[in-house]
Specification:
Elements: H1 2-12, E1 42-49, E2 52-59, E3 72-74, E4 79-81, H2 89-95, E5 99-100, H3 103-106, H4 112-118, H5 126-140, H6 161-167, H7 170-183, E6 190-192, E7 201-203
This protein binds zinc ion (2 copies).
């Protein structure tokens, strides 16, 4: 599966093939030794293929990156970072076929999906967004449900469940889901008398994301 994903991305021109000259500096180190190939950081992502999902290692250093002139600065970690050279959002969304899942958004340096929803460019990288989500969960406990916002000071839009799932760590998301379930169990709801014409209906307390 990993090799299938790899050759798919190489074919699309998003990844470099192993042996690409840019992966080898051609330079001996300070002691005159030529460094052997190192895989670099590996991201495990869940990739859908057919009806199932598999965990697949992605060699991050094989991605082609944008030039330094197009690098983006993150206000959170104060790093200038270069995004994967994926073309347009539509190209990237189409590129993943026949593989599916959120992994293609998760490997990006900046939270492109968030940018799209918010309508502004995020000042924070995906890594800092992940940390922001985790910190808010620690800070707010159960109250975080339906109140987790975009970290940008000019925005503060409440994030949708799917966005949190896209950018949170798996373990953090499991904790969030527990809080989420807890909120929406019948014992935590209360009944309110409703408009005469509509009889009575249930609302959640606190309001779920869809009621905001
Ligand atoms: Zn950052
Ligand atoms: Zn925003």
């Amino acid at each position: 599966m990993a090799s299938k994903v790899f050759s798919h991305l190489v074919q699309l021109g998003v990844m470099k093939p192993i042996g690409d000259p840019s992966l080898d500096s051609g330079q001996a180190d300070e002691e005159g030794v030529f460094p052997s190939f190192t895989a670099g950081p590996i991201r495990m992502v869940k990739i859908g293929f057919g009806t199932g999902f598999l965990s697949v290692p992605i060699f991050m250093k094989l991605f082609r990156r944008l030039d330094k002139s197009r690098a983006r600065y993150c206000d959170g970690c104060s790093r200038l970072q270069s995004e994967i050279k994926y073309g347009s959002i539509d190209d990237w969304a189409a590129a993943k076929l026949p593989l599916h899942g959120d992994w293609m958004w998760q490997v990006l340096v900046f939270p492109t999906k968030l940018d799209e929803e918010c309508g502004h460019r995020s000042e924070y990288c995906s890594d800092c967004l992940r940390k922001h989500i985790e910190a808010k969960m620690e800070e707010q406990g159960r109250d975080v449900v339906g109140r987790l916002t975009c970290p940008s000071a000019i925005c503060r839009r409440v994030l949708r469940y799917e966005e949190i799932k896209l950018y949170a760590d798996e373990a953090v998301m499991k904790r969030y889901e527990k809080k989420h379930q807890l909120w929406f169990t019948p014992g935590l709801r209360y009944e309110v008398p409703k408009l005469k014409s509509h009889g009575s209906f249930r609302i959640m307390h606190p309001p779920g994301p869809w009621l905001n």
